[in-house]
Write the structure tokens for this entry.
Amino acid sequence: MSDAPAKMPARLAAREVAGALARAGFRALFAGGCVRDHLMGREPADFDIATDATPEQIKTVFPKARGVGEAFGVMLVRHAGHTFEVATFRKDGPYQDGRRPTSVTFSGEVEDAHRRDFTVNGIFEEPESGTPVDHVGGSADISARVIRAIGDPHARIAEDRLRMLRAVRFAARLGFAIDPLTAAAIRAHAGELRAVSPERVGEELRKMLAHPARATAARLAEELALDGAVFGAQGSAGAAARLTALAPTSEWATALAAWMLDRAEVLRGGLPRPAPRESAAAVADLRTRLTLSNHETDALHSLLAARDAVLGGRGGVEDAHDFESLPLAARVRWMARPGFDAALAVVAAEAPDLAARVRADADRELPDRRLPAPLLDGNALLAAGFRAGPQFKVLLDLALDAQIEGRVRTTAEALELARAAEATAP
């Protein structure tokens, strides 16, 4: 089967892939999240296909299929502008690393359904008719709006401890409750999440905090004692006011900062916010615990610094300035710094009136959040006879501040200002 020249709807393309397997004599079913979403009245964006065809047999039907986990029976099939995971029905062997089985055995669909994590993710679907094929009671749990482990929840968690965080993410995202026995098993094993690699915990947390239901997920993670593996210390479930106030489109790093601050407020009993050095240490710790990238780490540092600048003396920080009373140039420089708008999103939950005023000021003074091109640069100073040295930055900053505030409007005026400043320098 060759790729169609134009991309067709994902469901239709997936049906054609499953149909090709069926015509070749194999059983092929939709599997996992796409079935769950369909039963909930949502049109899935991605479709996974489970089949009794082995990887070698899949290749006979789709010669260009690419193996991404052939030992586990997983192949990638490209068709009509979409890429589908086509996996052979399998039964997992023993788990020894809390992540993946030591071996797999190709099996039938019933065994394959029972190896999966939660009942709502263990349902199959006939591609042509849309009829559910449910060996684990997932359809009933979707109707009851429950996340329930398939079989023994302790065994499912022992196989892959990350399933504890996945249960939280699914429950929050779908608006479901977690089955009491599954929740009890998560609480019993919550400390074992620390044994999961930081990369995997970080990736799951990215998915969790990138969704608008992030505040619900955070509170549920705290209730189930999973936050200790994320932050190093378990807290008590709080109101998550900052997380709740974020816009649905907020980046996940902004949500992480908001959750960190929500927790800090609860743990500190409402005491003044931590000093910048404490925040920096907390970010450094998260970088290690979640394998944050340089970009994500910088985003957290920038957001927290901008938040402290905007809040100023609020929250009990001694000797802090009042942001609104700063000179225009100082305010504009903050407005142009990375993390400023993300910080305002967090401040909106702490001091909404202040956040609204500062945002209005920023939209008026620096709508594109970029400093203006400077009238004066180092080359102009050298051409005017200034001697290169550390004072260059001081003079350029003075000139840019004056430009921002409208006190100089031409390069000549900026040079005149620089000369006057140099003449009066100690």
